[in-house]
Write a structure and sequence with these properties.
mainly alpha, 0% strand, globular, RasGAP_dom
Length: 143
């Protein structure tokens, strides 16, 4: 009744909850509701629910600086093609799927290593939200 589009309410809601230090319990509560309707572990948090939208907005607000510091140097380094779809490769232009797969693996590994290496500087709020989501998911799908 207040908003025409629920998406319009998410950003102000997240900002308000952040200001009052209530985002983690709120996300946990709405995520728990989402998990009740989730039938398979493979589909956890894949929908465009209130919980996933709140997490997305929180990461944009809280994690933007962390993301830039952590991944921008690696992303700036990416200069080789990594196209692996045979239908999009052009042998006439020198495309080689094996070389591109090696490039892709190299950069994915490098990004992963940087994320793991930077875990100490990940914003505490993001860690708290992710811990809460992991705990709820493990409770719903123990295996």
């Amino acid at each position: 009744e207040v908003c025409r589009d629920k998406c319009d309410a998410v950003l102000p809601l997240v900002r308000l909850l952040l200001h009052h230090h209530k985002l983690v319990p709120f996300v946990a509560a709405v995520a728990e509701l989402d998990l009740r309707d989730t039938q398979e572990a493979n589909t956890i948090f894949r929908g465009n629910s209130l919980a996933t939208r709140c997490v997305d907005e929180m990461m944009k607000i809280v994690g933007k600086h962390y993301l830039k510091v952590t991944l921008k140097p690696v992303i700036d380094e990416v200069c080789y093609p990594a196209e692996t779809s045979l239908g999009k490769l052009s042998p006439l232009e020198g495309d080689n799927v094996e070389i591109n797969m090696e490039n892709l693996r190299y950069y994915v590994d490098k990004v992963f290593r940087e994320i793991v290496r930077s875990s100490i500087s990940c914003p505490t709020l993001m860690c708290d939200v992710f811990y809460s989501l992991r705990h709820l998911a493990a409770k719903r799908f123990p295996s």
